[in-house]
Structure formats: structure tokens, C-alpha cells
Amino acid sequence: MLTLINLEVIQQILKSSKTKISASAQMLYINCLMHHFKDKKPTASNNLPFEILHSSFNYQKYYPLICQLHYGGLVILREKSIYFHDLWNQYIDFDFEQKSSGVTFTPVEKYKDELLNSSKLKMFAQKTYRFSEDAFIKSVEQFVLETSATEQTYQMYKQCAAHFVNWLGKRSTVISPSGTKTTTGSTTYR
User: Fold this and answer.
1) Which residues are CB-neighbours of 186 under 8 A, at least 6 positions away?
2) What percent of the chain has pLDDT over 70?
3) Beta partners for 181?
4) Residue 31 CB: number of other CB atoms within 10 A?
5) Position 182 confidence tier, pLDDT thresholds 50, 70, 90
6) pLDDT number for residue 86
7) Alpha-helical regions (H) of the chain
8) pLDDT for 60-107, tens place per residue?
């Protein structure tokens, strides 16, 4: 995470303070961030607010500096801990998982033909949801439309196909060949 929460991000966080913070309080804040994030990989699950227990360091010694951070809105003093707001989220790139991993992520549009031509997916839709060929095509097109609207990307086709299968199962309605909507949970199909 420290590759993302860099000096520029820290500078922006400190500038966002509601009050003037001393250099010593700024260093304490930076040290806390470094201590918390030093061994964490740049993933969404590691990019969350965190707490440091008073008992984990000499709280009384640093209390005046922690108060500065609290009045500045960077932390919240709690009874037994200090809560660090996730202010870094405002200043780091939200595509960090993709960029930091070096793995290429592909938009759903690139997998549309594979989805349409997959005999296994067609068979699954026919057996599970009693889809005709036309209903399957319309469902793939709707999936691609909805998924591209949210800019969802995939590392590989298997992930896209799995998402499509889950998407089919979670939908309350399906598109029939005639273009009318029918409920998947019942036996009524048009």
C-alpha cells in the first residue's frame, strides 16, 4: 500500500486538515500510516480505515500530538484507540489493483463473441432457464450492456463466464425470444 500512499498523497491529506498541524504531529501521522501499511499489498481490502490501540504505544507521551490530528479531522480519539479516517482514498487512483498487479484486465465487450459462441453456456441456459437460442442471445447482449455500463473488467474469459452465470441466476426476470419479460423463479414462460 505504501506505493500508493506516497508523499504526494500524504501532502494532500495534511493540507486537508481543518487546523494547522505541527511538524511533530505530521511526522506522528506519517509514522502511523507507515507502520500500518508497511506489509500490506495494494488491494481494496487493505485500503480501509484502521485503528491503533492506546496500549500499543506510549499514548500519554503523544497525546498532545494526537489531539492536533483529532482537531484537524485526520483521526478520531476513542476511549481505547485512535481511528484513522481513510482520507487517502480521495487522493489515490482507484484502479490501483489493476495497475499495481501488472495483470491486464479486459472489458466485457471483448468477451461477447466467446459468450455467444459457448456451447456450455447455451446448454446451461437452456437446461436451467429453458432458454431458446434467441433468449440466450438477448441475455448475453443485456449482460454485456449492463456490465459495460459499470466498466467491469476481467483478467480472463473464465471470470467473465462465471459472472454471466451468476448474473443469470440473480436476475428476477429473463428476456424471452419475443422480447417480453418472464420470471425465472416460476414455470411461466412466454
Assistant:
1) none
2) 83
3) 175
4) 12
5) low
6) 81
7) 7-15, 23-37, 59-71, 96-101, 112-117, 119-129, 133-149, 157-170
8) 999 999 999 999 999 999 999 999 988 887 777 656 555 555 567 788
Domain residue spans of the chain: 7-97, 104-183
User: What is the per-residue pLDDT for 190?
Assistant: 41
In sequence order, the β-bridge partners of residue 189 are: none
Secondary structure (DSSP) of 74-109: SEEE-SSEEEE--GGGGTS-TTHHHHHH----EEGG
- Phi, psi dihedrals of residue 154, rounded to the nearest 5°: -135, 150
Rounded to the nearest 5°, which phi and psi values hold at 50?
-145, 170
pLDDT of amino acid 154? 83
User: What one-letter code names the amino acid at 170?
Assistant: K
Nearest Cα neighbor of 103 from 163, 43, 151 is: 43
Per the CB < 8 A criterion, the answer to whether 93 and 4 are in contact is: yes
* Number of residues in the chain: 190
Tally the C-alpha atoms within 13 A of residue 20's C-alpha that lie toward its C-beta: 1
Q: Which residues contact 158 (CB under 8 A, 6 or more apart)?
A: none
Which set of grid coordinates corresponds to residue 80?
481505547
